[in-house]
Design a protein that fits this description.
alpha+beta, SH3 type barrels, Fumarylacetoacetate hydrolase, domain 2, 6-stranded mixed sheet, 12 helices
Length: about 450
């Protein structure tokens, strides 16, 4: 059965004029969900949907009586300050609300005048993390990233033997996940200097970004049950951009034997808008792996996986240094990759996460792991782009970078486009690195 429906029709236009920009992120065919409030107002955050350069306040629209039936019930769940209640309702409710929004935001809608008062300009809004994140798991789903990083550590054996059999991941923490715009202090931790026998406590000198997709869980499963791979995507609400900031020198000292800890817990940033899987339907592509690689175990395999289990999402990282900002110079692109290169799919991540009976809950977040492509220009981290800091990048303004400097902003973007369908985007994800606090200092 086709996953496409009338909401994907590229001929649809909106009475919100800015949504009809062919190069914009938020046309009528997208309608991503987030949480916002007006800037400078001490008011509760509330659920909104992006349309062009505007946000539809779903609570106000519900109060205005523009929804009916299942869409009204879904909109009522959006009266909360986070998306968890809507996420918990499941894909039928999500689809009903999205279809209703598509209809009332189209050109010629009789409800346009009533909805005018429910719009807030995106330029006048600030965002919060769109859902309460009860649990966060970071996967390692790019074989290109795993191989390149493995070569830095184990030149003769870069890829560990379990990689092609099991979706590798680790449980992180949700407490330091923040929305785009975060400025954080360079972290301090234990580092083992080269040639030394004892570690020192020092600010990290190797701050890195990781270009990832964030995967928000919608409906959960009961403890002790499994999610079959054929049902896995029905448990996924949608995708966002994710930057899992890393302190590589802290990581190198602490990660054995139990993996990342303080090297990654100081900050993770996500984009404000969650693009639903339904909106991404036109951009599904076959998932595949080389013929000589192991076939996935049965619980990680399904017919639909190979036909359309991957997503064609373009990914981009740009760097804006303090000197660029002062000189009004545009940020410089560092890399461009694509989510279709992921070795493990979204459905496989969900199925594996629950194979032991682990329960998922609405609002849980997965990171895909750094999304690098097959060429060196598609590397999703500075660790890869600079060969572990041994080959600094020369920027167009004459600056050099091995890792992220104080004052730098890392900007991530993602979008989907192909002939015959409307371009949809994820918006920007921006984060800033500030100088470290003095050791022993408070805030």
């Amino acid at each position: 059965m086709s996953r496409l429906n009338e909401t994907h029709d590229p001929a649809l236009n909106s009475w919100v004029a800015s949504a009809n920009d062919a190069h914009g992120d938020f046309p009528l065919q997208n309608l991503p969900f987030g949480v916002f409030r007006r800037k400078g107002q001490n008011e509760p955050f509330r659920v909104g949907v992006a349309i062009g350069d505007q946000i539809v306040d779903i609570g106000l629209a519900q109060t205005a009586g523009v929804f009916s039936g299942p869409a009204a019930r879904a909109a009522a769940a959006c009266m909360a300050p986070a998306l968890n209640p809507l996420m918990a309702l499941g894909p039928i409710a999500w689809s009903a609300l999205r279809a209703a929004l598509s209809q009332i935001l189209r050109e010629g809608s009789s409800l346009a005048e009533r909805l005018q008062g429910c719009l807030v300009a995106q330029s006048h809004a600030e965002h919060a993390v769109p859902a309460h994140i009860g649990d966060y798991t970071d996967f390692y789903a790019s074989i290109h990233h795993a191989t390149t990083v493995g070569k830095l550590m184990r030149p003769d054996n870069p890829l560990l033997p379990n990689y092609k059999w099991v979706p590798i991941g680790y449980h992180g923490r949700g407490s330091s996940i923040r929305v785009s715009g975060l400025a954080f202090h360079r972290p301090i931790g234990q580092i083992l200097p080269a040639g030394k026998q004892a570690p020192v406590v020092s600010p990290s000198k190797r701050i890195d970004y990781e270009l990832e997709m964030g995967i928000f869980i919608g409906t959960g499963n009961e403890l002790g049950t499994r999610v079959a791979i054929g049902d896995a995507e029905s448990h996924v609400f949608g995708l966002c951009l994710l930057n899992d900031w890393s302190a590589r020198d802290i990581q190198a000292w602490e990660y054995q034997p139990l993996g990342p800890f303080l090297a990654k817990s100081f900050a993770t940033t996500i984009s404000p808008w969650i693009v639903t899987l339904e909106a991404l339907a036109p951009y599904r592509v076959p998932w595949h792996r080389p013929d000589d690689d192991p076939k996935p175990l049965p619980y990680l395999d399904s017919p639909t996986l190979t036909t359309d289990g991957a997503f064609d999402v373009e990914l981009e990282v740009l760097l804006e240094t303090a000197r660029m900002r002062e000189a009004s110079v545009a940020p410089q692109r560092l890399t461009r990759s694509n989510f279709r290169h992921a070795y493990w799919s979204i459905a496989q991540m969900v199925a594996h996460h629950t194979v032991n009976g682990r329960n998922l809950e609405a609002g849980d977040l997965f990171g895909s792991g750094t999304q690098s492509g097959p060429s060196s220009e598609e590397a999703g981290s500075l660790l890869e782009l600079t060969s572990g800091g041994k080959q600094p990048l020369a920027l167009a303004n004459g600056e050099m970078r091995t890792f992220v400097d104080d004052g730098d902003a890392v900007i991530m973007r993602a979008w989907c486009e192909k002939d015959g369908f409307a371009r949809i985007g994820f918006g920007e994800l921006v984060g800033y690195v500030m100088p470290p606090l003095e050791i022993g200092a408070g805030r």
